[in-house]
């Protein structure tokens, strides 16, 4: 399995239809950070209005790829309104900040520029307009496939030049990240990562910081805590979780977990059982040890 597919499997990419229909006025979206969105504009014109940013006007059938917090309005700009099909995407369960996608603004892809994805889009519209059994599942799977195609296209076009999705497709960092994801229990160091990337320590650190926006050891710690949360939800004992994510003692693991997540593992488990917490995601510590 390639590293990008492996990552999507490990983070349980899930696309969900959340709106479909005609917008005659404004569709107000106010979703929390950590979600990605795709809006398919079948016909009609819309304006995407975001606080503090220039208005984005769409006048032709297009796909909008919105990978950051979804806090904006989609306003109809034509008399007949605009017909939209919209999906949201989450990675794992309730991730508040799954990973940096590497995009600061919404990408707009006119349909006539998405030749490779048009069959998927046509199938998606056909499933939506039909009433066949399994329609909801088919729509979700098609949206997930479209998400992958848009990520590929954005990287090819140079519209994603940083963040985890870009790094996973980078020959230098992809191997390292894939290995970290598979083996969080390994006694990792910056030197070991650099050796795997066939780079010097200084060049690797600079490259990782530039592309990922965080130091290598900070990312490692964040991934370990994300993995720990998954294991704790599954009922794995804390001491086993500690060893599984690379900590020699339960105490040191618990300290790191509390510092990054906000409460000790035992308290987090109790809150999770009551539905009072969400998985924290890859929120990296600001001053990681580089060892």
Provide a short characterization of the protein structure.
The chain is built from 11 helices and 9 strands. With 291 residues, the chain is α+β, with helices and mostly antiparallel strands.
**Strand line-up across the major sheet:** 1-8-3-6-9
What is the first-to-last residue Cα distance? 30 Å
CATH class of the largest domain: Mainly Beta
Note poorly predicted spans: 93-98, 279-291
The fraction of residues in strands falls at 15-25%
Overall geometry comes to: globular
Query: Mean of residue pLDDT?
Result: 84
**Number of DSSP strands?**
9
Question: How large, in whole angstroms, is the Cα Rg?
Answer: 21 Å
Helical segment count: 11
- Secondary structure category: alpha+beta
Please give the oligomerization state of what you see.
single chain
Q: Biggest β-sheet: count, sense, barrel?
A: 5 strands, antiparallel
Q: How much helix is in the residues?
A: 40-55%
Q: What is the H level of CATH, i.e. the homologous superfamily of the largest domain?
A: Jelly Rolls
How many separate structural domains?
Answer: 2
Question: Which CATH architecture of the largest domain would you pick?
Answer: Sandwich
Can you tell me the CATH topology of the largest domain? Jelly Rolls
**String of helices and strands:** HEEEEEEEEEHHHHHHHHHH
Question: What is the fold's blueprint, element by element?
Answer:
Blueprint: H1 3-11, E1 13-23, E2 26-30, E3 36-43, E4 46-49, E5 56-58, E6 62-66, E7 71-76, E8 82-91, E9 107-110, H2 118-129, H3 135-156, H4 164-168, H5 174-182, H6 190-196, H7 201-212, H8 216-233, H9 238-244, H10 250-261, H11 265-273
Antiparallel strand pairs: 1-8, 2-7, 3-6, 3-8, 4-5, 4-7, 6-9
């Amino acid at each position: 399995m390639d590293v990008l597919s492996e990552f999507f499997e490990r983070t349980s990419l899930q696309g969900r239809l959340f709106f479909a229909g005609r917008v005659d006025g404004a569709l107000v979206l106010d979703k929390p950070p950590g979600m990605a969105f795709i809006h398919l504009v079948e016909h009609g014109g819309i304006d995407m209005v975001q606080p503090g940013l220039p208005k984005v006007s769409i006048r032709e059938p297009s796909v909008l790829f919105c990978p950051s917090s979804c806090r904006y309005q989609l306003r109809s700009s034509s008399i007949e309104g605009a017909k939209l099909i919209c999906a949201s995407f989450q990675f794992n369960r309730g991730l508040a900040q799954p990973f940096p996608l590497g995009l600061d603004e919404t990408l707009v892809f006119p349909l006539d520029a998405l030749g490779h994805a048009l069959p998927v889009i046509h199938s998606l519209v056909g499933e939506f307009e039909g009433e066949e059994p399994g329609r909801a599942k088919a729509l979700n799977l098609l949206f997930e496939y479209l998400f992958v195609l848009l990520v590929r296209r954005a990287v090819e076009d140079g519209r994603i030049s940083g963040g985890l999705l870009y790094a996973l497709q980078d020959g230098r960092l992809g191997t390292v990240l894939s290995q970290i994801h598979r083996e969080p229990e390994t006694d990792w160091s910056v030197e070991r990562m650099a050796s795997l990337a066939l780079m010097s320590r200084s060049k690797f650190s600079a490259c990782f910081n530039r592309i990922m926006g965080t130091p290598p050891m900070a990312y490692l710690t964040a991934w370990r805590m994300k993995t720990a949360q998954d294991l704790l939800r599954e009922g794995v004992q804390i001491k086993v979780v500690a060893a599984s994510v690379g900590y020699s003692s339960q105490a040191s693991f618990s300290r790191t977990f509390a510092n990054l997540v906000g409460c000790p593992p035992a308290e987090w488990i109790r809150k999770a059982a009551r539905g009072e917490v969400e998985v924290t995601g890859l929120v990296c510590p600001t001053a990681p040890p580089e060892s």
